[in-house]
Amino acid sequence: MKNLLLLALFFQCVNSTLIGQTTCNISVNTSTIINPKSSNLLGVSYDGRSSMDFDPSPGVNAIGYHNPSNGAIITELQPVFNRIKIGGARYPGNLVSYNWNWSYTIGPFSGRTAQQISTATSLNQKLQFGFDEFMAMTATKGIPSSEVQIMINIYPSQGQSNPAILAADWVEYCNALNDGSNPRRNRLGLPSCYVRTPCALQY
pTM of the predicted model, to two decimals? Predict the structure, then answer.
């Protein structure tokens, strides 16, 4: 925690310098607890592009930390990932969500739809590590469902020009029981709802 505090102070001083303020005075009262659950603030934005292949050349050239061939964590990263404690997670990340269609990333891989979700490459790709795999990962890491956020946006996405419909469908998919009330969830045979999840608006 001390290191995190020092890091926060460092960025505050850098920010002050960038805006032309030459003196930076910061006071910290370590005896006052403002937020007793501050550990929940130490979450991650889990990049939805993490299983993309960077280019069409032979072999795997992963853009992130999941193998584009099977969606698993890259072998060399697995020991480090196992040690990381994640208090909360949001998906698919910040700018990633602007052209994101979550429904292209669920269900069996053979039935998923390719999409371009990175300005770093012009490739249209199916994602081996999609929303279903992300939710399975959060369960494995012991992340409480209350600390999982899905990032929606207010702009058109691939395959759906109305962002409200895309967002509403995603919330329903996350929460609907496997009782026929949600066509996608029913078709995939998922046993229960994922989360009673908050939704963060990306705009």
Answer: 0.72
